[in-house]
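Protein in question kept underneath.
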Amino acid sequence: MEEPQIINTGTSIATPNVVFIMADYGHDPTETAVPWAAFKAAGYHVGFATENGKVPRCDKKMVEGVTQKLLGAKKEVVATYKKMQQSEEVLHPHAWSAPDFSLDPYDLVVLPGGHEKGVRQVIQSPIVHKLMLDYFPKTKKPGRKVVAAVCHGVMVLSESKDANGRSVIHDCVTTALPTQFEQTAYWGTRVFLGDYYKTFGHGSENVQESVTKALASPSQFKSTLNPGPFVVEDKNYNYISARYPGDAELLAEETIKLFESFNRIV
């Protein structure tokens, strides 16, 4: 009988080292706190990084007041977010703009989304783009680096382009915030909230359009209008993407399964 063997394509990852790349303010609390809680529960080492090491804060409209009750995070997610905000890793984030900061020590890079305009700090950052240009190629299988992105977080990748203008996800399948979701939220709240749901302002491209333009073919963009949990996992890269807050839990679950698969017995 053939002896079972452990697939080994690199250094063993007994305890994955995770970093959330964040703007100072504006990320969605569900897309941030739900994966954070899942990775902590799985025993992962979790850290955060903002531009200059400032404590990140998620979009207050999603966790406070009338906007939270009508449009924002669920009550249990708000509680998880508040717990996250008191964690050592959030209170003492790294600075992704520091000259000596590198993503190399991390097994997983998480890019949460958020439609508040503050997230442009990370989406448009040449520093973050350079970090992703260096890191993302290392997610190519059989490598063991992983990237998980949701909603506007996918734009960090679509905007990270090499000297030839090719995005790091040019050859990947991906999802992101669907145009129909974005337009429904925008037009449904415009009278009360203005262009709040348009991260780059009224008349700007939808997230789906921006991401699709960065792909080799429009067919690489995968989506569904079913509000139930949905994620997309690329076959050639350890890259998992999701559309919106409703997918956050599944995104975390599938990411954990991916790490478990690295050391599976066959």
User: Anything to note?
Assistant: The chain has one domain: 17-262. The two ends are 13 Å apart (CA to CA). The longest strand covers residues 45-50.
